[in-house]
From TrEMBL:
Domain of life: Bacteria
Keyword Cell cycle belongs to the record: no
Protein name as catalogued: Multiple sugar transport system substrate-binding protein
InterPro entries referenced in this protein's UniProt entry, alphabetically: Bact_solute-bd_prot1, SBP
Pfam families: SBP_bac_1
CDD domains the UniProt entry points to: PBP2_TMBP_like (cd13585)
Stretch forming the signal peptide: 1-23
Entry annotated with the keyword Membrane: no
Length: 443
């Protein structure tokens, strides 16, 4: 569409020159009926339709109510298609593999798809659209959230949702037992041990324990103990730091967790805490309503929020973007698609979507009291402080993320069950290295 306007302008100029018999450039602009100079249209993409494919998500519900505003402002029509996450991922993979030109904007899961989509050449680098746009102000985004959507120094997605790993705790129980809010891993374990009283139906600590889904929550413990999933193309699952993290996480759930902790996803873990059965709980801040909403929690008025405790390497919780907007490399409407992405992630729009309950990635919005008026005050403080120290990755940065998480869950499960961590970690190290090598050879 942009080229159409350029061609039209050239044809118009040529026509004026022919009609006036003048081939010089004395006329700075074509005359308009009122004698003024013509100006470019303020809606250069008017009449363009872009197709946006996204998984069903609360953010999408909020943005749909604002679409008429964007369409009226730009003249761009946005056709939205939404499916379940699995259907969305499958649909995008099929269309991108076929280089379908009708797919313009898409929702991606940066932590799972940044490397895959970048390696396959499926996404348009976004730097040229946002880097020099001062009004858009890409530097306003929390840096770790941009890191999540960056590959080989190319930004391929603009974050729309974020989440951080924090500590939930029972204010009443800590106060009654004269326990300070834990700030270190040692203090967290000591508090869990003191508050653990299974005979009275009270358990000291809970977190995700179910294999693959627990790996992301384990990441904060791994980083805080000085470990990592891999160092470039070298797996690091059985390093002393990783082994210490596995042992700590396993001991916390094995010794102080509720029955069945090894099979818990965040839903079960949050429910146990919300039912008043657990004193301490680590997970994402994005799920806080599950323990703070009186309709879901029997302890809603007793919940406290704190920074993730520090380990030997300091406090290193994840601070990630769980969803982002990207533009297909094969789109025939890239400029119009970029206009939509910038509008949907602008300061004004993010303020509206965040006020509606969708945690965004703009620091200026988090600093705006309007966006957090319905959040607990101590949670807002924790969120703002975590953005300064958080790690922008909560899982292995490989193409086969699901397979890698399954491998890494081996020593974690062994630790929770009190089994041989070293043997499980050595096996995971070997299997994960084989996966890394296989992907490298396939490039």
């Amino acid at each position: 569409m942009k080229s159409f306007w350029k061609k039209s302008s050239l044809l118009l100029l040529a026509s004026v020159m022919i009609l006036t018999g003048c081939g010089s450039n004395n006329n700075e602009g074509a005359a308009t009926p009122d004698g003024g100079a013509s100006t470019p249209s303020d809606k250069p993409y008017a009449g363009t339709e872009i197709r946006f494919v996204m998984a069903v998500h609360p953010w999408l519900d909020a943005i749909k109510t604002m679409l008429p505003e964007f369409e009226q402002k730009t003249g761009i029509k946005v056709k939205v298609e939404s499916f379940s996450q699995e259907q969305t991922s499958n649909k995008m993979a099929v269309e991108l593999n076929a280089k379908t030109s009708s797919l313009d904007v898409m929702f991606i899961r940066p932590l799972d798809e940044t490397k895959l989509f970048s390696k396959n050449g499926w996404v348009e680098p976004l730097g040229k659209y946002v880097d020099n746009d001062q009004e858009y102000d890409v530097k306003d985004f929390i840096q770790s959230s941009l890191d999540t959507s960056t590959y080989d120094n190319q930004l391929i997605g603009i974050p729309i949702t974020t989440e951080r790993e924090i500590l939930y705790y029972r204010k009443d129980l800590l106060e009654q037992n004269n326990i300070a809010v834990p700030t270190t891993m040692d203090e967290l374990m000591q508090a869990a041990e003191k508050l653990h009283d299974p005979d009275k139906g009270m358990y000291g600590f809970v977190a995700r324990g179910r294999k693959v889904v627990a790996v992301t929550q384990f990441s904060g413990f791994l980083y805080s103990f000085g470990g990592q999933f891999h160092d470039g193309d070298q797996a690091t699952i059985n390093t002393p730091e990783a082994l210490a993290a596995f042992k700590y996480y396993g001991d916390m759930l094995n010794k102080f967790g509720p029955p069945g902790a090894i099979n818990m996803h965040w839903t079960e873990a949050a429910a146990a805490f919300a039912q008043g059965k657990v004193a301490l709980f680590t997970d994402a801040d994005a799920i806080y309503l599950n323990v703070a909403d009186p309709s879901k929690s029997t302890v809603s008025d007793k919940v406290g929020y704190a920074m993730f405790p520090a380990g030997p390497a300091g406090a290193k919780p994840y601070n990630v973007s769980s969803g982002a907007l990207a533009i297909s490399q094969f789109s025939k409407n890239k400029e119009a698609a970029a206009e939509f992405v910038k509008w949907a992630t602008s300061k004004e729009t993010v303020l509206k979507t965040q006020t509606a309950g969708n945690p965004g990635a703009r620091q200026s919005v988090w600093s705006n009291a309007e966006s957090t008026k319905d959040y607990p005050a101590d949670l807002v403080t924790v969120i703002n402080e975590t953005t300064k120290i958080g790690v922008g990755i909560d899982r292995p940065q490989v193409i086969g993320v699901a397979e890698a998480r399954d491998i890494i869950s081996g020593p974690m499960s062994a630790a929770i069950e009190g089994k041989d961590i070293q043997a499980a970690a050595d096996k995971a190290q070997k299997d994960f290295q084989a996966l890394i090598d296989k992907e490298k050879q396939a490039q």
